[in-house]
Amino acid sequence: MVNELKRFTKREKLMSKFKKGCLWGAASTTTLLCALATTGTANASGFQLRETSGTLQGSSFAGMSTLTSDASTMVNNPGSVGQYQETSYSVGGTLIMPVAKATNIEASGTGVTASKSFSNASSYKDMAQDAFVPNAHAVFKLTDQLNLGISITSPWGLVTDYEPDFAGRFHGTTSSIKSINIKPVLAYRFDNGLSFGAGPQIQQLDAALSRSVPELVATTNEGNSEVSGDDIGYGWQAGINWEVINGTRIGIAYNSEVRHNLEGKVDFDSAAENLPNTPYTDQTASATVITPESFMFGISQDVGEKLTIMADAQWTNWNSIDTLTFNFGGDTNAANPGIQDSSSEAYQWGSSWFGALGARYQYDENWTFTGGLAADETPIKTKYRNVRLPDSNRYWISLGTSYNVADWAAISFGYTHVFADTARVDLKDDNLGNFAADYDAHIDIIALQAKFQF
Predict the structure, then answer these.
(1) Which of 403, 414, 321 is nearest to 374 (CA)?
(2) Residue 428: how many CA atoms within 13 Å on its side-chain side?
(3) Residue pair 250/298 in contact by the 8 Å Cβ criterion
(4) Number of CB atoms found within 10 A of residue 184's CB
(5) Helix or strand or coil: residue 10?
(6) pTM exceeding the 0.70 threshold for the entire prediction
(7) Which of 91, 105, 211, 419 is the most buried (most CB within 10 A)?
(8) Which residues, in sequence order, are CB contacts of 25 under 8 Å at separation 6+?
(9) What is 78-93 written as a DSSP string?
């Protein structure tokens, strides 16, 4: 009897060490993933990245305000944090593979670009870039009713990249927005099944925009520029997750806008700095960017013991993206003193809606299957659509599965294919020239998520 007890105690100790090893491995992976988050992001509707959970990816993010199947589902609704019954840790990553092609291209010079040459190609493929987007989440059980949660994600991102001879190069070549967002949450669960959570947002944003610059006289000479800046901004979040009756759950959440005062510089390549008539000069640069606020609500309903139907909607206030102005520390070109001390791009975005409908089926004690459809409205009006982000309305179809490796560990997989409407870009500028094209795009998304419970 004593020997059996010793063997049982030894097994328990070994299992505890194994679980801790998995937790430390996941924590190390998170550190690596957060480092990778600064090196690669991709565009979503607007420049939002919805890819924050491999579990929700499989349902087109239906259930994002109500589900608590693993810690990654808490990122959209802080109120969900109070519903977790155990300490839970989740780490994952999403591979985004977009394809975007421009057709029916027409380009011509005006003003200082009138003497420049433009490619005769009627199509351009491919300016979109593949990206890997990591995420990490944890919920800690503090008391029977009080939980602490934290999420690390990359909610905003954009990478588009054109070749140097691109016909619209004076309007934009490479565009990059990268972010890291940390969301701590404190949530309390009441006896009636209502959970309320709230907390701050700590958001790092890095932006870089490149384009070709013409010599400011009628010549064929030109160069290239890049204006860049970064900042850490702060916001807040709050939400509720309420199991109104057994099997019926509603979720409501608000995420505030975050104001960024970017500080950086404008750099010119050697060709721009050595233009014979109107050379350019590097300067410091600053700009204000406000990432948008959002409001979401959703409902999930159990149908029997195995099936759950989920529906969610999110409103995003992109009106904060109006006119992007970089103010320089001085004139970038002495040929036009007092005129080349800033650079502006008009965006004039509006608000947009995202809606998702999905289902989750618990096949047995180990396997769960999900599926979903979603519609993602663009905030961009055709009048203001540009080469940096030729966004349009998008439609999602997703499938996913989760497998319980053990009673304390699970792996989730999600796949999404995104269809997009044709996006028309029609730019006219008295100095930078005219550019028009039709953009067609589609996206394949593959997501993996690992879950640990203790």
Answers:
(1) 414
(2) 2
(3) yes
(4) 16
(5) helix
(6) yes
(7) 91
(8) none
(9) GGGGGG-SS-EEEEEE
d(CA 45, CA 378): 6
What is the residue whose two structure tokens read 């890049």? 226
**How many Å apart are CA 73 and CA 36, to the nearest integer?**
21
Bridge partners (DSSP) listed for residue 451? 90, 410
For the beta carbon of residue 239, count every other beta carbon within 10 angstroms. 28
Instruction: Quote the CA–CA distance of 126 and 422 in Å, as a whole number.
Output: 15
Helix H or strand E segment including 31: helix 2-36
What value, to the nearest 5°, has the Cα angle with vertex 90 and ends 89 and 91? 135
User: 65 near 249, Cβ under 8 Å?
Assistant: no
Residue 343 has a pLDDT of: 87
Beta bridge partners of 58: none
Strands 394-406 and 423-429: unpaired
* DSSP-assigned beta bridge partners for residue 429: 433
**Distance between CA 233 and CA 235 in Å, rounded?**
7
Return d(Cα 436, Cα 102) in angstroms, integer. Answer: 9
Q: What is the pLDDT of residues 118-175, one digit of tens each?
A: 877 777 877 888 889 999 999 999 999 999 999 999 999 888 889 888 889 999 999 9
Residue 186: count of CB within 10 angstroms of its CB: 16
For residue 389 the two structure tokens come to: 């982000």
Q: Quick check: 3 and 11 in contact, CB under 8 A?
A: no
Tokens of 204: 């790092």
Q: Average pLDDT of each block of 10 consecutive residues along the chain (454 residues)?
A: 49 49 48 45 67 92 94 92 93 92 90 83 80 92 95 90 88 91 96 95 94 88 93 97 95 97 95 92 94 96 95 95 90 81 87 96 95 96 89 96 92 96 92 91 94 86
Q: What letter represents residue 103's amino acid?
A: T
